[in-house]
Amino acid sequence: MNRNVGILILVFLAGLGGTATFFVQYVAAPRIAAEQRAIQNRNLLEMLPQGIYDNQPLDHPLSLTDVELGSSQLLGGYLATQSGQPSAVILRSQTTGYAGPIELLIGIGANGKLLGVKTLKQSETPGLGGKIAATPNPWLQSFSGKSRNDPPDSGWALKKDSGQFDQMAGATITSRSVISAIHDALRYFDEHQAQLTGKPAHD
Fold it and tell me: Which residue range is the domain that position 35 belongs to?
């Protein structure tokens, strides 16, 4: 009899412990989700100059899924607005670097000019192509203000390839891939602005 009582007590305690664990996870889940969302928002906030939007871009995803471009692929995007008007689009782009995929966030203003580029994921060689993930990143910042046609198509290449851009030291393949991905994104925005923002091109 005592053994049965002991077993029942153990079962009861195990059940109580499981219930308590579930309750703690249930209560903590919203906070964890909120923290994850805050991290995602910070990634987006770093892309955009202060004062050009007043919405939460993550709440306004764009209908983009695996859009194949010339040298890259669009995995998704978000719309930033101010006073209800589109102010910027953030495109999530993936290209292939020297050691594997490179995932970028590319911010483009409603006027078609590049606002910023941020590396989300990469597996390039540390100290060489891996510098693409550095924050702040002077090389990526050098593209700000550029647009699909500024420079013209032929200029969207490394200087060693008769283009207009310097490369990251020791990272030719990484540099080429990122330049092509940025130009792809600007071209896509220029050709699909009405679809992305609901406004005609550069209105």
Answer: 1-45
Under a CB-based contact definition with an 8 Å cutoff, are residues 183 and 156 in contact?
yes
How far apart are alpha carbons 69 and 186 in whole angstroms?
Answer: 11
pLDDT (tens digit per residue) in 152-176: 999 999 999 999 999 999 999 999 9
Sequence-distant contacts of 133-140: CB under 8 A, at least 24 apart: 135/46, 139/166, 139/168, 139/175, 140/116, 140/178
Residue with tokens 């007043």: 54
> 97-142, pLDDT tens digit by residue?
999 999 999 999 999 999 999 999 999 999 899 999 998 899 999 9
Reduced to 3 states (helix: H, G, I; strand: E, B; else coil), residue 156 is: coil
Give me the DSSP letters along 77-116. Answer: EEEEEETTEEEEEEEEEEEE-SSSEEEEEEEEETTS-EEE
Residue 203 lies inside a defined structural domain of this protein: no
Inter-residue contact 45 to 66 (CB < 8 Å): no
Q: Determine, yes or no, domain membership for 51.
A: no
Does residue 66 fall inside a structural domain?
A: yes
Strand order in the sheet with 67-68: 67-68, 73-82, 85-96, 101-109, 114-121
**33 located within any domain:** yes
Confidence of residue 203 (pLDDT cuts 50, 70, 90): very low
Lowest mean pLDDT among 40-44, 53-57, 58-62, 139-143: 40-44
